[in-house]
Amino acid sequence: MRIGLLTDGGYPYATGESRLWCDRLVRGLPQHEFDLFALSRSAHQEDQGWVRLPPQVSRVRTAPLWTPEDGTLRGSGERGLLARLVTGGEQSYGRRDRRRFADRLTALATAIRTPDEAGTEAGEGPGAQLFAEGLYGLAELARERGGLHPALRSEDTVRILEAASRARGTGRTVQNATVPDLLAFAAELERALRPLSLDWYDQESLGAVDLCHAASGGAAALPGLLAKRFFGVPLLVTEHGVPLRAHYLSASDTPYGTPVRALLAGFHGRLATEVYRQAAIVTPGNTHVRRWQRRCGADPAQQRTVYPGMAAERFGRVGEDAERLAAAGEDDGAGGPGTLVWVGRIEPSKDLIALLHAFAEVRRAEPGARLRVFGAPADGEEATTYLAHCEALAAQLFPDEATGAHTEGVSPVTFEEIGGPEVPDLAEAYGAGGVIVLSSVVEGFPVSLVEAMFCGRATVSTDVGAVVEVIGGTGLVVPPRNPKALADACVALLRDPERRARLGAAARARALELFTVEQNLAAFRGIYLELISHTPVRREADTVDAHGDPLPFATPPEACLLGHWTRPGSHLRPHPDPDRPGEPEPQHTRRPEPEGVCAVAAGPAGDGDA
Question: Which of 97, 108, 293, 382 could bond 93 through an S-S bridge, CB–CB 3.0 to 4.6 Å?
């Protein structure tokens, strides 16, 4: 089976959120062939290079979404789309194409600025139909004319957006949009729709795959929507987080005004609905994501929860030691049973301030308790400032304590980075204490909790994101932003070693059952086969000649078997008909295959761009 894996800011680049998961998926399913279609998010990400790709990756196609202005109008003698509209192929639009562009963009803008009426199911109202009409109409125009970059950055685009924002029925927020607001939204819309102008939509690219698997929603799923539209390729969408929710949370950090944020929210909401409506199967990473998808129009019958797969063997030694020590009735954790451990990226959403205040309560009840914070600040000046604030608060709440007049004081709270001689790796960090704490106020899938569960550790967590679903009764859960409740739960486990051992053993058993790489691979292996069984592979370009006539023996008997040898051989390709001059040679004609039985059985090598 040939899988088109669609990523946005992740695999195959060395940095990105989906890198590890996609790499494990590709390496764990060597019986399939993967074509990667990757969107990059920054110049820094591209400079970091790619991860080492396995042999089952036949080719890689990439496209940047971070360049400032791709395809702006050239020349200054004429103004406006109607006067001058040049595509990337240097071909001017005719009158009919100009009218098509205006009509499709008007439909898209109308769907974005018009919210559905109260009580309307997502994807069922007229706005969803208008959005689909505009989106696919623009995609067809881009495919025929070589791109939409100049058109979307033109003066006429701003005029169309202005007319839509002033139309009757538009919300007051959008009606107040100024010309600078519309210019800013037009620039963001052009950036969001860049996947429509890519050269991926032909029989040798996305038309050649059996299944499109988008590693996230949003921009990554756009090529999958078009592959289904143009070639009937089924679309599978996997989301471990909620792109729409992430957009809502990050909107306040943008320099744009309220009208621009409202228009962008309308676009991303409509796009999410269309992605869920067209996907054959949607696989949320947890119930929290599943609820968001249903709210945006996903059909419950098409949803399959598939938990992210994690490498359990990395934490195997610490987990086995915890089980052995618990069975022997000894203290668990190299750092002693009175040590609390926090692991993660240090940023405001982790709410370490509440954790430090909670630990002050813990120290009053258990004077010998310690808190070890393992992590580093996330990227950005805000995270660095937050770490400095946490360290200053810890120094204020917990002055260095000395055992005597001539000894050096030691603080009960330490901020450490993994990789030193005392804690060389991540597993040792979890093994450094008896209780693992998570104090976040915002969380998607809590990776650190699963890692702690693999290590056989009892946990205390705040009730955010998918925490309750992951823990499943094997740890204590308290409300977020409640230091008193967090402290009480920690003290309860510190004072009860038997309960701590029982919870740790149950947590390890649950993690090994639900959150391993093997479980994740087995789920997608079955989903791939299910989708293909309901969507038979049709290779029209491989079974007909340039004039639509069937090729004899184009589908060999061994086509029911897996492997490269099931492709029709190049000896079945007809040469151009001399009786029909002027017609081009079929684009699907491949290079002649090497002679010999073994060479033909092995099939031609991948002709990708990697």
Answer: 97
- CB-based contacts of 557, cutoff 8 Å, min separation 6: none
Residue pLDDT, tens place only, 552-603? 766 666 555 555 544 544 444 444 444 444 444 444 333 443 433 333 333 3
Q: What angle do CA 174, 186, 142 make, to 5 degrees?
A: 130
* Predicted TM-score (pTM) of this structure: 0.79
Assess contact for 11 and 220: CB atoms under 8 A. Answer: no
Dihedral sign computed on CA atoms, order 266, 271, 276, 282:
negative
223-227 contacts, C-beta under 8 A, 24 or more apart: 223/4, 223/6, 223/37, 223/195, 223/198, 224/4, 224/6, 224/275, 224/279, 225/135, 225/274, 225/275, 225/278, 226/136, 226/139, 226/143, 226/195, 226/196, 226/201, 227/4, 227/201
Other CB atoms closer than 10 Å to residue 420's CB: what's the count?
Answer: 9
| CA angle (341 as vertex; 338, 344 as ends), nearest 5 | 175
The whole-number pLDDT of residue 552 equals 72
Q: Is the peptide bond before 12 cis (omega within 30 degrees of 0)?
A: yes
* pLDDT computed for residue 123 by the predictor: 66
Match 């029989």 to its residue by tokens.
203
- The Cα-based distances of 133 to 43, 464, 526 in angstroms read 34, 38, 33
For tokens 């060597």, the residue is 30
Burial class (CB in 10 A: 0-12, 13-18, 19+), 230: middle
**436 phi, psi to nearest 5 deg:** -100, 135
The neighbouring-strand residues paired with 376 are: 345
Q: Which residue has the tokens 């684009």?
A: 587
Q: In the chain, which residues have pLDDT < 50? A: 70-90, 333-334, 565-566, 568-610
List strand residue ranges (DSSP E) for 215-280, in order.
235-239
User: What pLDDT score does 330 carry?
Assistant: 60
DSSP, collapsed to helix, strand or coil, labels residue 415 as strand
Q: Which two tokens stand for residue 131?
A: 């959005």
Beta bridge partners of 345: 376
Radius of gyration of the chain (CA): 28
Bridge partners (DSSP) of residue 167 are: none
Across 182-215, b (16+ Cβ under 10 Å) vs e yields bbbbbbbbbbbbbbbbbebbebebbbbbbbbbbb
The pLDDT of residue 400 is 75
Task: Label residue 133 exposed, middle or buried (CB < 10 Å: 0-12, 13-18, 19+).
Answer: middle
Selection from 469, 474, 477 nearest residue 438 by Cα: 477
